[in-house]
Write a structure and sequence with these properties.
It is a single chain. This protein has about 500 residues and is α/β, with parallel strands linked by helices. The protein has 17 helices and 14 strands. The chain has helices at about 25-35, 50-55, 60-75, 90-95, 115-125, 150-160, 165-170, 175-190, 205-215, 230-240, 255-265, 285-300, 355-365, 375-385, 385-415, 440-450, 480-495; strands spanning about 75-80, 85, 200-205, 225-230, 245-250, 255, 270, 300-305, 330-335, 350, 420, 430, 455, 470. α1 (about 25-35) crosses α3 and α2 (about 50-55) packs across α3. It is globular.
């Protein structure tokens, strides 16, 4: 067939007829890239759809569909009676594009990002990858296998059947009213917290609660007193919001409040986990609780009380929160359902003094609008029907059993290599290593053998780091603990 003068025949096209990507989309993409790369210059005439379809072995409809899309996107233009052309006046615009348009994102030249100061701090924060399935002994993982999914599924189906306008529209920034009421009742009966529904702010987890508090209560450069060691992601969150961290060492009586105040008497905020410090597991003594409250009242500073897993105390009732002895409204209480139920539920809450409610709600309205209402409605019914309390009672007994199993297994199979420190609550224990050990290397080499743990030394900021491994037992059934510890012992003997 004789070629028409001025017509470009598309010898560069390479369509894959076995691909899941439709042929018209492949054709669209390859012509677009040819235009952007300059291979097809502005004003060039394209073959007629019938001719191009024969050339590349596709239907004419495929070519017409691709051409119409490219005309709509501005890459081509159709001239009645003349044919289809590469759009006019593209040469100058394309010349200003970098010559990397056909590269994958991973192949693009890596140039410094233009981040804000806050963005630069966030970019340096600790990143982590959650495994696709539970492994021994990943910390802070609940017993997924024991959750009452049958009950939960029925409640989800009931909420979704005829949800109504209030559950389908944007919800209250503070949260779904029945859930806030259920949380207030639960906290009053089980934790002794005196609050009403209006003080409950529902969020997407404890991490959001901390970030929200930093956004509402801190100005850039404000000082925050934190426990040392502590949860690294909490440090990153506060630093990302402009907080300047001052470290207070933790000993057997919890955070050394005097040491923290001495470093920063005018600190704007203190973050503390008084009932069960993370990761050491100690309890803040009464004298230090009173000292912290007195300081916050005098300095007009805020205390964020992180009560992440106090429900799972192995003996006796959970310890009374710091909030219950606060007489001046300086404590903001943070709780979460992630460790009690399952993390992907993404529901946590705050109990805030009444004068802060409006500010918190305004901040939520700007950041996320509201936490998804249907999940909140399901959880409210789960609590009101008694399923939540029953699940906690079951999990408390289960974690006692798993805790005893891991302590016994470590003492039997890791004697001389790991000094186990039994816990009083929660889902984790600490296995301390010898002073000359490098726990980060041990963590990595255990991971290679399928054992997940978390090194302790990076959590110490100013205190002398003590090498150890944080071992979670929550997601590991009793019958799998002993074999996993034996595998851990074999792996450590090779280190």
């Amino acid at each position: 067939m004789k070629k028409q003068p001025g017509v470009v025949l598309f010898s560069f096209l390479n369509l894959d007829k076995h691909s899941a990507i439709p042929l018209f989309q492949q054709l669209n993409t390859q012509i677009r890239q040819a235009v952007l790369s300059g291979r097809l210059s502005s004003g060039k005439r394209l073959p007629a759809s019938r001719i191009l379809a024969i050339e590349i072995g596709v239907s004419r409809t495929t070519v017409i569909t691709a051409f119409e899309q490219l005309v709509a996107e501005g890459y081509l233009e159709s001239r009645i009676g003349s044919g289809t052309f590469v759009a006019s006046n593209l040469d100058k615009s394309i010349s200003e594009f970098p010559p990397t348009l056909n590269l994958r994102q991973s192949e693009l030249p890596q140039q410094p990002s233009r981040l804000s100061r806050r963005g630069a701090l966030l970019a340096k924060s600790l990143s982590y990858v959650v495994p696709k399935y539970p492994k021994s002994f990943l910390p802070n993982q609940p017993a997924f296998d024991q959750f009452p999914f049958g009950v939960w599924s029925r409640l989800v189906a009931r909420q979704n059947r005829n949800p109504g306008y209030d559950k389908l529209n944007y919800g209250n920034a503070a949260g779904y009213s029945p859930l806030r009421r259920a949380i207030a009742g639960y906290l009053h009966h089980t934790r002794g917290i005196k609050c009403d529904e209006g003080q409950i702010i529902v969020v997407t987890g404890a991490q959001m609660a901390l970030g929200l508090s930093a956004w509402v209560l801190l100005d850039p450069g404000d000082t925050v007193i934190m426990e040392d060691p502590s949860l690294l992601v909490t440090r990153d969150t506060l630093t990302g919001f402009g907080g300047r961290i001052v470290n207070a060492p933790v000993d057997k009586n919890g955070m050394n409040v005097s040491a923290g105040i001495a470093k920063a008497p005018d600190a704007r905020m203190a973050i503390v986990a008084p009932s069960h410090q993370y990761p050491l597991g100690v309890t803040l003594s009464l004298s230090r609780r009173l000292e912290l409250l007195a300081w916050s009242n005098q300095a007009e500073s805020w205390i964020i009380e992180d009560d992440y897993d106090s429900e799972f105390r192995f003996s006796g009732a959970p310890l009374a929160p710091l909030q219950t002895i606060d007489q001046n409204g300086r404590v903001i209480y943070v709780g979460t359902f992630s460790k009690v139920l399952f993390p992907s539920l993404r529901i946590g809450y705050l109990v805030v003094p009444p004068e802060l409610v409006d500010a918190y709600c305004a901040a939520i309205g700007l950041l996320i609008r509201n936490t998804p209402t249907l999940n909140q409605a399901t959880l409210a019914e789960f609590i009101d029907n008694g399923h939540f309390s029953a699940h906690i009672r079951k999990m408390r007994l289960l974690y006692v059993e798993r805790h005893e199993a891991i302590v016994a297994a470590v003492r039997k199979d890791l004697s001389g290599m790991v000094d186990i420190s039994p816990a009083q609550a929660g889902m984790n224990v600490i296995g301390w290593l010898g002073s000359n050990s490098k726990d980060i290397e041990v963590e990595y080499k255990l991971k290679v053998h399928g054992i997940l743990s978390s090194a302790m030394s990076p959590r110490f900021i100013e205190q002398s780091p003590r090498p150890g491994l944080l071992l979670g037992f929550g997601c590991t059934p009793v019958e799998k603990i002993q074999p996993a510890i034996q595998k851990m012992a074999q792996s450590m003997e090779m280190i």
